[in-house]
């Protein structure tokens, strides 16, 4: 139950991403700076935390041992996750992006065959590829149905351009985030705590953000003061607090694909928090009865997903799979 609660708290702070990104876009800010500034601002906050815990030297040793893996999976898990999210904010409202992002519930489950597990059987441990948790995905379909109902009120007013440029990049992000997160869990092998891992991934993704920033300077100019301030708020709420909570929740269930899927399903709460936030801060349309019924389905789907995932879960141990998956 603890990983589920941590996931819900993470969803609350993640919701600020969709609200503030939309706010920055409405104010004329470039999506490039909304993306890059968040990770630039995350570095000093995380650096202070890791230094205070005297864990920076072990982190450097881990990063030096497998620099290419850190660079690759951090760029995917952070870069190809957040850049498309911010790009979509220029074409679609925050509620649509938050709702579309919930496809990660299924995306994360579909990634299970890319990883190997040691499954404990009567004959001893056996190395097997992860299996797609179909029971959990059935519960995820309830969550997605609720999300669809929530958005029918506004979806009729969207153009084809808003749907394509506001939805498809988010679908890409929905695969990149769990893939990068899970791969880095394998690379770290439990040797780093969540603060070290987030800081390490942030530092390893810096080349991605620096290249994007150079492109931003040439095409959009420097960021505005208001966008800089809001980006710092996103960095604290979503980049530090939410990411640390979510990574800690996934660490608690590392190696159990069903429970991991349940934790990832808690991110559906972002939709509820984003709707409330946009009502309070951006004066968006008040959800109708159909939308509220969708929210009930989201919560019901989460409860059922958690129950199915924790009932009779097999005992499994995650092993390093980076080489296996890269060669497949």
Automatic annotation (TrEMBL):
Pfam hit, one: EmrE
UniProt entry keywords in alphabetical sequence: Membrane, Transmembrane, Transmembrane helix
Origin: domain of life: Bacteria
UniProt-listed InterPro entries: EmrE
Membrane-spanning segments: 31-51, 71-92, 98-120, 132-152, 158-177, 198-217, 229-249, 261-283, 289-308
Annotated protein name in UniProt: Multidrug resistance efflux transporter family protein
Lineage of origin: Bacteria, Bacillati, Bacillota, Bacilli, Bacillales
């Amino acid at each position: 139950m603890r990983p589920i609660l941590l996931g819900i708290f993470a969803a609350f702070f993640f919701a600020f991403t969709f609200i503030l990104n939309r706010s920055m876009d409405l104010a004329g800010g470039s999506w490039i700076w909304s993306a890059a500034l968040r990770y630039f601002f995350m570095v000093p906050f995380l650096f202070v935390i890791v230094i205070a815990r005297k864990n920076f030297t072990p982190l450097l040793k881990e990063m030096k041992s497998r620099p290419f893996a850190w660079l690759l999976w951090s760029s995917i898990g952070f870069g190809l996750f957040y850049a498309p999210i911010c790009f979509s904010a220029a074409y679609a409202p925050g509620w649509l992006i938050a709702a579309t992002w919930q496809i990660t519930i299924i995306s994360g489950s579909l990634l299970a065959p890319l990883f190997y597990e040691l499954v404990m059987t009567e004959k001893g441990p056996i190395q097997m590829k992860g299996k797609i948790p179909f029971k959990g995905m059935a519960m995820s379909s309830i969550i997605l149905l609720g999300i669809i109902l929530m958005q029918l009120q506004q979806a009729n007013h969207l153009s084809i351009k808003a749907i394509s440029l506001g939805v498809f990049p988010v679908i890409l992000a929905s695969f990149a985030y769990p893939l990068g997160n899970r791969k880095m869990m394998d690379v770290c092998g439990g040797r780093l705590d969540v603060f070290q891992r987030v800081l390490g991934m942030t530092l390893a993704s810096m080349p991605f953000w620096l290249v994007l920033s150079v492109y931003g300077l040439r095409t959009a100019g420097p960021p505005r003061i208001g966008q800089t301030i809001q980006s710092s708020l996103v960095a604290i709420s979503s980049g530090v607090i939410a990411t640390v909570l979510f990574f800690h929740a996934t660490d608690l269930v590392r190696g159990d694909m069903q429970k991991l899927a349940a934790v990832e399903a808690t991110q559906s709460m972002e939709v509820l928090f984003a709707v409330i936030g946009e009502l309070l801060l951006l004066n968006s349309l008040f959800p109708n009865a159909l939308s509220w019924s969708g929210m009930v389905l989201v919560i019901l789907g989460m409860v059922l997903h958690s129950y199915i995932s924790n009932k009779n879960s097999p005992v499994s141990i995650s092993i390093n799979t980076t080489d296996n998956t890269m060669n497949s």
